[in-house]
Amino acid sequence: MKKFTGTGVALITPFKEDKSVDFAALKKVVQFQLENGVDYLVVLGTTGEYAVLKEEEREEVKNCVIKEVNGQIPLVLGIGGNNTHAVVERLKTENLEGFAAILSVSPYYNKPSQEGIFKHFTEVANASSLPIILYNVPGRTASNMLPETVARLAKHENIIGIKEAAGSMDQAMKMIAQTPKDFLVISGEDMLALPMILAGGAGVISVVAQGFPKEFSKMLDLGLERKVDEAFKIHYQLAPVIDMVFAEGNPTGIKAVFKTLNLSENFVRLPLVEASQILSEQIAAFCKQVKA
After folding, report:
1. Residues 6+ apart with CB under 8 A from 138
2. Which of 168, 187, 217, 238 has a Cα at 20 to 30 A from 210?
3. DSSP code of 225?
4. Distances (CA, A) of 171 to 69, 149, 159, 191
5. Residue 135 bears catalytic tag
């Protein structure tokens, strides 16, 4: 699945001041990605504030992105949840035209055992007409998908990879070692994207990259080419803003980046709140420096 190698971006959903979806800004954000070399886009993930969108808004966001991308790069759709039956039903009934894969988060809140996680994703993969990329993010789900479980799931013909966001290089390397060579271990942590590529990972599904797509894509391409010193030079240039973007939660920080770049406003929906003035000023100063 070469199409999911390199820089994937977890798209935001821009809002206007009245908190309605800003489709004009969404188009600008998508074009910014297309013009600056990202390899694929993830629509309606956590960064897209999926949880606070109405069903009709989700459909409109999907259609807007599909139309704007117009087949230029692959699209991945976020479909997951902690009710296995509901996820399966959605995969069977939702219009998936225009998408190349599904990103499905490990069940949250329920805190299933490893066997429960395995059986959940087996059901999901069996039901999906598109290949599945697993998503492990213990900081949000309260359970960790262990490398041994990922290795079992990697045997399923419809499970092609994992977005690994446990923040552990040790765990990521075990996943790389224990899964087939063509199984994609994708970083879900922007700070670990380059180290994971050098360890044998496939790339990243990034939040920060959508604000700095040219720089981030270049870094990942250099990493894939094993041009380590050049790649790490960009990594250390971007490292400060990675910390800033996640300092007050996601997508609060990345929306502050887009506000600075005049691509969208920085509005989020409750329970999230906009970036503080101090953080906004720090991000604006960094963007001015990088984009100079």
Report:
1. 144, 165, 166
2. 168
3. T
4. 34, 12, 19, 15
5. yes
pLDDT digits (tens, 9 = 90+) for 8-19: 999 999 999 999
Which residues, 6 or more positions from 134, have their beta carbon under 8 angstroms from its beta carbon? Answer: 104, 106, 121, 145, 150, 153, 159, 161, 162, 163
Sign for the pseudo-dihedral over CA of 15, 70, 93, 251: negative
* Structure-block tokens of residue 155: 């045997």
Per-residue tokens: 67: 């139309």
Query: How does DSSP classify residue 156?
Result: S
**Catalytic member of 62, 163, 255, 259:** 163
* 236 tagged catalytic: no
Greatest Cα pair distance in the chain: 51
Residue tagged active-site, from 50, 62, 135, 259: 135
Residue 51: how many CB atoms within 10 A of its CB?
Answer: 11
Alpha carbons 192 and 235: distance in angstroms, whole number? 10
